[in-house]
Amino acid sequence: MKCRLADVDLAYDIAGASHNPTLLLVHGFPHDRSTWAPQMRALSASYQCVTVDLRGFGESSAAPPYSMDQYADDMAALLDAIGVRRAVVAGLSMGGYIAFALWRRHADRVHGFVLADTRAGADTEAAIERRRQSIAQLHTAGVEAAAASLIANQLGATTRERHPELEPMLLATVRRASEDGLAGALDAMIARPDSTDTMATISVPTLILVGDEDTISPPAEAQRIRAMVAGSRMDVIRGAGHVSNLERPAAFNAVVSEWAAAVFDPAQAH
Fold it and tell me: CA-CA distance, 150 to 131, in Å (whole number)?
């Protein structure tokens, strides 16, 4: 399905009954909504699951501006379009940065957070330089040439050994993105604010998940968020890297289901 917002067409999918609590799943960089397929299948029995391609990714159109604030505004507008007042927002990696922006700008739309393989701090100088090199490669050589480097180190060692089919799957998500969308997201991540101070303001139930083999946003970063968000819970997904929901979907889904059942009253979550 597609939703026309003010300046962009967003592609999205919905699975599950509309009377159930809504779980909005926000993908990471440089992925698209297809990476949430295991969650759509498993969690839609209890939740109305919504996945969306961010502007410039997947089947959504590419239109500036690209910023964490704009992505967050897009998510709020999508919730408006599908008639959802509040959602549990699950953000992986860059999706976590968008979740933080959504909290700053639209806190009344958030019923809870699942923060997966993400970090609160801004980019280091080294990370900024790597992103600038990726932007240059995209503009000089194109998406196809840059694809492999954009997903480098995202999968854990266990996944690369046991599930080699996931690497070409991630490569396919990069190839579906537009050059402008990828470069715009990289610029947006460089420019994103440090969200450390935001963590102490989060007052909704929060689950923090991280793969124990994640070298991009390692468990220490998840632990930092856990220490700052009052009442939050942290779980480590064994044998997973930076895309823990895709690498160990059964473990990821089990933790989310258990946590959500314990903290949410379904009658008040929609």
Answer: 9
Q: Topology of 2-268 in CATH?
A: Rossmann fold (3.40.50)
Q: Per residue of the chain (270 residues), give pLDDT as tens.
A: 998 988 999 999 999 999 999 999 999 999 999 999 999 999 999 999 999 999 999 999 999 999 999 999 999 999 999 999 999 999 999 999 999 999 999 999 999 999 999 999 999 999 999 999 999 999 999 999 999 999 999 999 999 999 999 999 999 999 999 999 999 999 999 999 999 999 999 999 999 999 999 999 999 999 999 999 999 999 999 999 999 999 999 999 999 999 998 887 654 444
- Classify 248 in phi/psi space as left (phi over 0), alpha (psi -120 to 50) or beta: beta
Q: Chain centroid to CA 63: how far?
A: 19
- Name the token pair of 30: 């440089």
Q: In this structure, what token pair is assigned to residue 133?
A: 């090199």
The three-state secondary structure class of 31 is coil
- Segment (H or E) for 22: strand 22-26
In terms of DSSP bridges, do strands 9-15 and 2-4 run parallel, antiparallel, or are they unpaired? antiparallel
Structure token digits, residue 109: 């739309």
Domain boundaries, the chain: 2-268
